[in-house]
DNA sequence: TTAAACTATAAAGCTACTATAAGGTCAATA
DNA sequence: TATTGACCTTATAGTAGCTTTATAGTTTAA
């Protein structure tokens, strides 16, 4: 299978595949005489794994770490679980931060309506004066 | 006031101040004979405004937009409010996406415990097989 | 006087791609 | 046969918002 077919199969762009190869996340495939990359089903699985990890919000470094565990299948999987736990708490703290932020933004927005001039805008005044309900 | 004092006052790094100047968010200050930047209180207010916007999650482009409104104080502030409304809905959709993600991650995590080998790890199996509870 | 602390510019690094440029290869068509 | 279009190659730059590094000049305190 050539790069375009693999890309279509997994739903990524061809450059993304080359990028993953360059980053060491996908093993370099064999080449045809003309230099074209030739992929196997294994590559397809590897690429799909990477994409699912990305959808879960894992960084390329974390994916690399997971791959290193896969290469040594008889160690205990505590590290895998720990990585996921860390990621979950990271996601949770992001959610919390965004919820705080949303409240600040909504209260800032409530301090103005559309019938004013910029000079008297409650939103701009709120930002300028730092009325941002810290924490 | 020199750049280091301004930086300490507002709580940013000196490079960040130079960066904002370069990006057109802070007006270029006067220079001493030796080339050192000299800042006024106005610069301090401008920088604080930028930082508060950044804390609210606004992009530099959005900040630039807000500044352009400030330069024309007698137009109606509908555009300011609209910018904030857009930002609020952006934040809300981020929250929703992260909440969906959190559920996926938690259910993935529940499919394993620490007493397995990598080979049998429920987390890795879940990612590899794509059991990711779409949507 | 010398060293620490400050300032300056320019350029590279970070993440995870995406886009662009310039070119080689291949199959089908006129 | 010539050429068009779709595909492939590499290399490089751009995105956001800084941070880091390199290199060098200036000021200040000991």
TrEMBL record, chains A, B:
InterPro entries on file: CadR-PbrR, DNA-bd_dom_put_sf, MerR-type_HTH_dom, MerR_fam
Residue ranges annotated for the HTH merR-type domain, each copy included: 1-69
Pfam families listed in its UniProt record: MerR_1 (PF13411)
GO biological process: positive regulation of DNA-templated transcription
SUPFAM superfamilies reported for this sequence: Putative DNA-binding domain
GO function terms (MF aspect): DNA binding; DNA-binding transcription factor activity; metal ion binding
Keywords: DNA-binding
UniProt-listed PANTHER family: HTH-TYPE TRANSCRIPTIONAL REGULATOR ZNTR (PTHR30204:SF92), REDOX-CYCLING DRUG-SENSING TRANSCRIPTIONAL ACTIVATOR SOXR (PTHR30204)
Protein name: Cd(II)/Pb(II)-responsive transcriptional regulator
Gene designation per UniProt: cadR
